[in-house]
Amino acid sequence: MERTAPLSQTQRMALLNLIKERDSIVNNKSTAPGIIEAKKRTWEEIVLKFNALNPDQQPRSSKQLKRSYDHVKRKVKDEDREFKKKIKVTGGGCPPTPPKATEEIALAASMMTADLAMGNDVFETFNVEPVHDSSAADVYELQEEGGSSTISSFPITGYETSSMSGTMKNPWDLSFRKEIVYPS
Description:
The protein has 2 domains: 9-117, no CATH class; 142-181, no CATH class.
């Protein structure tokens, strides 16, 4: 295969916009047979539309467009990793300013939020998002009473608590869980 000219900025933006319309299929990490076939069909659609948008250029294959998309994703991840590295540097001073994202980087990053949220820690393997729920119960308060702990309220998001007060001798005793009132 003969090497073609790299994609221009406008061509990369067109490619990203075509992918954004089909984001749920293209970026689906499932390996189910139905998803794999849907991805193949979707990439062929993207190739047809991309080549129709650029009739004066040599037609691109799905392999070339996938490689181009992977290159853009790699740039986004590299910038994100460098910024996170700067944040974790010790020594005082002002926090680093976030990198100025081009329109291309911003569009690609908007499709990669789950990928970018991972990796906040060297050993992190999954992403846990903080829950901001006003209906959550108060944080638990432990009070020492002669070697035992009293739980006055327990944080359970989305559930109401009845009487969560009780004294436990063993902090791993979870018998109080049956007092949770589940919403109907």
